[in-house]
Fold:
Amino acid sequence: MPDGAMPVLDVKGLKTVFRTRGGEVHAVNSVSFDLKPGELLGVVGESGSGKSVTMMSLIGLLPSPPADVRDGQVLFGGEDLLKCSQEHLREVRGADIGFIFQDPMTSLNPVFTVGFQIMEPLRKHMGMDKPTARKRARELLELVGIPDAARRLNDYPHQFSGGMRQRVMIAIALACDPKVLIADEPTTALDVTIQAQILELVRDLRQKLGMAIVWITHDLGVIAGIADRVIVMYGGQIVEQAPAKELFHNPRHPYTRALLKTIPSVRGQRAEKLNVIEGQPPILTEAPTACAFRRRCPHAFERCERENPLRRPVGPGHDAACFWNPETGAAHA
Amino acid sequence: MLDAAPQTGRRKLVEVAGLKMYFPITAGIFRTKVGDVKAVDNVSFDIYEGETLGLVGESGCGKSTCGRVILRLYDPTAGSIRIDGREIAASAQSDLRTMRPTMQMVFQDPQASLNPRMTVAAIIGEPLEEHTNLSKAEKLARIYELMDQVGLNRNFANRYPHEFSGGQRQRIGIARALALNPKFIVCDEPIAALDVSIQAQVVNLLEELQDRLGLTYLFISHDLSMVRHIADRVAVMYLGQIAELAPRDDLYATPLHPYTQALLSAVPEPDPDVETERGRIILTGDVPSPANPPEGCNFCTRCPKVMEICKTVEPAFREVAPGRFTACHLYDDTKTTAGVTAAYEASKSIQQGV
Structure:
């Protein structure tokens, strides 16, 4: 992808808290990232690391209360999405930013035909009449590899298998030619052989359509296969950001390094004993005044307790939020 | 290590032969039976004492049903199950009860398998209550011992499951399974609900306990990389049947059955270099319904190497090389190890030709 191109999406200092009875939960803390045209950005992290909440906040999908998007800027097409009206956001969501959710069963409406659900955004956002929309819906189903598309338009979601339903979701998300596609764990609910089909489809669609994609997952294997660039989230923050190859070959943050070592492989060397990250992920009720990973980090020292590290550049296009320098084995100067 | 299991004269702890588990499909107001869901259809395997047999497959292939029926949580339709030398496929519930301490289970969802109204001590102590005559003090001592074994803090004995994280809850489930000193534990997707960094903790715990207590596991999972780590031998299930069963290293290095090949090829590798280089086998279509499996080989509708014979004749599940079993017509003519290697090489070249 061309470096230095104007990003299609630019997120700066995003901060989201949930107000609960037990106090405030700092789900997303000063998250900044951008998305370049045509790029596939992978977002990895464990459950509760804030990856989904980040994406939901930036397109206004979180119910408020309890959510409160407190700070930050989301620049998309020259405007700040956080300042837009709900009506305008709805326009943006359907037409310019497509969304694919994890569970294809619950995100499709069971009482409408698949055809109706694909035609809905086409008619709302593109102002197509029924026959045109139907024709386009058929093309979309063919594009995502559903055989006998014309007939399947009249089927209901329950008549599709899990993998086919996810293809339908992709068709809906692509309906209005979005500039950005946000995919939240789109293959997590699927079996591996079906996941392989969907990943193949996405590789193919990227070549044909060239939109920018944000791909959220906890599976580093999936990320390795499709992402251009990766951000790693932990405890509501971005702890590392790098081009995919760089991240896998030269991870800098202790969390990324540990995470890459805990996953066993089906190929290559088989480890006798799995590496573990001791302890539990943080509970985000305390304000982020210290490094979120310090209690599980083998390199933590006194400063990590006192101060929350900012992301600092560690290589070309590569930054990490850590005081520790893996090259010297000591703290950064 | 245990790879050469079949050759050595080690004792078989679990012997399963011709196991079938059909669930009836009923229709109409009289609930007349109109068919069967063949969840487990003619499955045979042994598990040796002290080993871990991995059982892998995609959702709906019958692997969990298989694990449950082996412990007689369901009554099998046909077949024999021998655990520790005793036939349990047809024994009465009262006889089974005396067997229960030998065979235990760890469930997938630690949230659903622990009673939210019982304390940890009560959960772990319940099997002791049912099957032993320990005094109150002895019981508590045993509960503490179990909590130590699985790495739970004794001070938490009076807490409730909701106060624990997913990984800790799974430890409670493991402690409960260990309470009666079982020989055989069925682990049904014990790590599927956990985060990556917690999965390794639980898997290491299971391995440690196995070494220390000499346990035998049936480890059911859809995670092929984790199974490669923990299992000594691996069985691959597809649509209610075992497609291939082999020692772990053989299975991952030279998968024989086309389904195993496709399944392994579908697992993404956490390394961008490997991911861009490697060839993939992408299966077309979906798994057929187990209520109406295809004629002949049950994989023939998706198999990239399907032949005419596959559509009519069901391949026999047989030993094609020492310790390696598969149900595939590609290996019909092979009787020797060399023959299998040749057949595997041939099947690989077909693959690359596609």
Chain B is about 35% helix and 25% strand. Chain B touches chain A through 42 residues (CB under 8 Å). The first strand of chain B starts at residue 12 and ends at 27. The longest helix of chain B spans residues 196-213.
